[in-house]
Amino acid sequence: MKPIYDGPPDGLLERLGRPGEYPYTRGVYPRMYSQGRLWTMRQYAGFGTAEASNERYRFLLEQGVAGLSVAFDLPTQLGLDPDDPLAAGEVGRVGVSIATVDDMRTLFRGIPLDRVTTSMTINAPAMMLLALYQLVAEDQGVSPAALGGTVQNDILKEYVARGTYIFPTGPSMRLVTDLFAYCAEHLPSWNTISISGYHIREAGASAAQEVAFTLANARAYVRAAVDAGLEVDGFAPRLSFFFACHSRLFEEVAKFRAARRMWAAMMRDEFGAQDPKSWMLRFHTQTGGSTLTAQQPENNVVRTAYQALAAVLGGTQSLHTNALDEALGLPTPSSARLALRTQQILAHETGVPDAIDPLGGSYYVEHLTDALEAEARALLGRIEDLGGAVAAIEAGYIQREIEESAYRQQRAVEDGEQVVVGVNRFRDDSDAAEVPVQQIDPQLQSRRAAELRSFRERRDGAAASAALASLSEAARGDANLFPRVLEAFRARATLGEVAGTLRREWGEYG
């Protein structure tokens, strides 16, 4: 890095293009935020019961969020019912517990699904949670074609960075592409995947690694869908992305710009996509959870504000801002409101949205954009040499790269080379403020187990069993599984029963 950059990099204008035009370095829309079309303000939320989470969603909607973002607890993410022995100690702890269609109805009670968009952070059982969501929409009289939102549905990053996988890689990829195909026909406005660099970055990857590994996974999904017989322009416009935004402001802006340019070239030149919407890298951003500190937690408000600024300067389509207490527990209503106000102040008081790509043409930012792209391309080349993302994951390459990067970062903090205010410099614990932490009912698991027993007693058990048998048969063939999953939930099967049926057919990963 130099202290000053005196001129534009060679070939700058050719690589930049104009906003809303290939290669989208300067943004995916011609006007971006400049005519009042702001990014979607989301606040990721979910804890305990469906009732408690529904109350939080209503509160957030009243405070001005434009879209909901659902956090599920670990048992739900792993396809386990709350009365499963493996769910012990985790029910409702890091998200909402959902096991039945009745739970999903409660979660969205009083929320019109044709007037909000919903993002669901769910991966291995993404098809299952989207099927439940569709059934709730049917109850409201809302057509599937009117539903807008996103399921994360990004199983590859689970194998390398997050760990909430269930099935082996082959069947997992089938679930992904079956969901692509079903939504292309029935839920045309739904984003069928959110290919996630966020968790890769949070696990310790560098900015360039976040871009490279995310795009490697995206390439694998597109190849799998094409191999399954889908037309690239039939599904690619509904692919979306999810990135972290950490505190090195200019590097983060450059990262988003490089990622857009690389994706556009990959889709047009490698996959032959003709629809410009297939070339657009649309992404959601979350500020960096791993950058938050339990020490001097009020500093987290400042960190989040700078990170939100970087995300907007980088052209994000939607944004979640972390709350100051997230290094200690789930956000309280007051901390969630302050996190949302951070976005609203950025949107309405700073003037930042008035200009399109305001840092475009900056010698320094363009240098960083080119440098990040070059580093990410080199990593992508290495992954291709290994046979692509799935082969690189199975060989452990991506996992090792992330682990080594995380180790280097931690050593830099411990050695004092990287300053973390309030942690390794500028410490002052004498006036540490007490921060309230969101509490989860310790009796929640037993209550959820009782609700589940009652649900099973009230249903037609024979109908549920028949629907699960039909799903089991389909899993042994090659038909699209989404309609069978939908019918299983319509027959009042539980999440654990649906996922368990597929576990018995396919086994588990690892």
Going by CATH, the architecture of the largest domain would be Alpha-Beta Barrel
Work out the strand percent: 5-15%
- Average pLDDT metric: 95
Main sheet: strands, sense, barrel: 9 strands, parallel
CATH topology of the largest domain: TIM Barrel
Number of helices: 21
> Unreliable runs, pLDDT <50, ≥5 residues?
none
Rg calculated over all Cα atoms: 22 Å
The first-level CATH class of the largest domain is given as Alpha Beta
CATH superfamily membership of the largest domain: Methylmalonyl-CoA mutase
Count of the domains: 2
Order of helices and strands: HEHEHHEHEHHEEHHHEHHEHEHHHHHHHH
* End-to-end gap: 42 Å
Q: Can you summarize this structure?
A:
By secondary structure, the chain is of the alpha/beta class. Helix content is 50%, strand content 8%.
Give a description of the structure.
- With 510 residues, the chain is an alpha/beta fold.
- It folds into 2 domains: 410 residues, TIM Barrel (Alpha-Beta Barrel), CATH 3.20.20.240; 61 residues, no CATH class.
- Helix content is 50%, strand content 8%.
- The chain contains 21 helices and 9 strands.
- It has a 9-stranded parallel β-sheet.
- The longest helix has 23 residues.
- The radius of gyration is 22 Å and the shape is globular.
Please supply descriptive tags for the structure shown above.
alpha/beta, nine-stranded parallel β-sheet, TIM Barrel, 2 domains, 510 residues
Helix/strand layout:
Elements: H1 12-16, E1 40-45, H2 50-63, E2 67-71, H3 74-77, H4 101-107, E3 117-121, H5 126-139, E4 148-151, H6 156-162, H7 169-186, E5 190-191, E6 193-196, H8 198-202, H9 207-227, H10 232-235, E7 239-245, H11 249-270, H12 276-279, E8 283-287, H13 299-313, E9 318-320, H14 333-348, H15 363-385, H16 389-394, H17 397-414, H18 444-458, H19 461-475, H20 482-490, H21 495-506
Parallel strand pairs: 1-2, 1-9, 2-3, 3-4, 4-5, 6-7, 7-8, 8-9
